[in-house]
Structure to design on (228 residues):
């Protein structure tokens, strides 16, 4: 079946611009996670949803980062007033429920100029 | 803060040989451990996982060993193939409750298969 889908695959933004990154999880998966992966590093946890509820946002680096999952399926990660240090690959993962295997999408590579 | 780390950033092995990738973790509350494989331009792909109530788990050509006494995790890949070339990450989590819901990843080991 279809895996986790993320769009766009690549995004170039000018510093100060707002961006929105989309994640379509695997159908039926309750849990959804966002991670940030800097070049040459492992993914770092940003936030977690169970259905539409955002249960953990401890990894969001600043209040410029905002995530939502209003209907418990598709999720959007929004970054306001992008800075150069926001340049990274943003990965979305979903799992059937918490504690199950997390399946990752291909990520969105964000470059802030 | 507590973190997951790897001993070797790059591992080069001959095709057909066995590979062992090591990982040290420091969060004693972690009860779930996973190995992911990541190829260039792709997201991490699940390889194998193990819970803290086990010390060994086998999959197809892969074995994960967990030593809770010294907080060490390893991934063994048998008869490595060119397609095994990738970056391998270990990750830890707390399923037992009370901990963060996301996974904590190590920096990764780049496995290179020599022909």
């Amino acid at each position: 079946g279809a895996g986790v889908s993320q769009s766009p695959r690549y995004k170039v933004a000018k510093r100060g611009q707002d961006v929105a990154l989309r994640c379509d999880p695997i159908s039926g998966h309750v849990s959804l996670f966002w991670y940030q992966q800097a070049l040459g590093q492992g993914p770092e946890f940003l936030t977690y949803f169970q259905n539409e509820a955002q249960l953990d946002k401890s990894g969001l680096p600043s209040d410029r980062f905002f995530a939502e999952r209003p209907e418990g399926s598709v999720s959007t990660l929004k970054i306001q007033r992008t800075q150069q240090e926001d340049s990274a690959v943003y990965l979305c993962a979903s799992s059937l429920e918490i504690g199950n295997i997390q399946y990752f999408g291909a990520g969105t590579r964000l470059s802030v100029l | 803060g507590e973190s997951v780390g790897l001993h070797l950033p790059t591992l080069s092995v001959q095709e057909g040989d066995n590979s062992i990738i090591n990982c040290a973790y420091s969060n004693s509350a972690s009860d779930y451990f996973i190995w992911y494989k990541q190829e260039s331009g792709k997201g991490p792909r699940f390889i194998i996982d193990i819970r803290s109530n086990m010390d060994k788990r086998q999959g197809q050509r892969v074995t994960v060993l967990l030593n809770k006494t010294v907080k060490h995790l390893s991934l063994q890949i048998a008869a490595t193939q060119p397609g095994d070339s990738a970056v391998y990450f270990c990750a830890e989590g707390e399923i037992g409750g009370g901990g963060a819901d996301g996974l904590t990843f190590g920096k990764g080991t780049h496995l290179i298969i020599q022909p």
Notes: The radius of gyration of chain B is 14 Å. DSSP finds no helices and eleven strands in chain B.
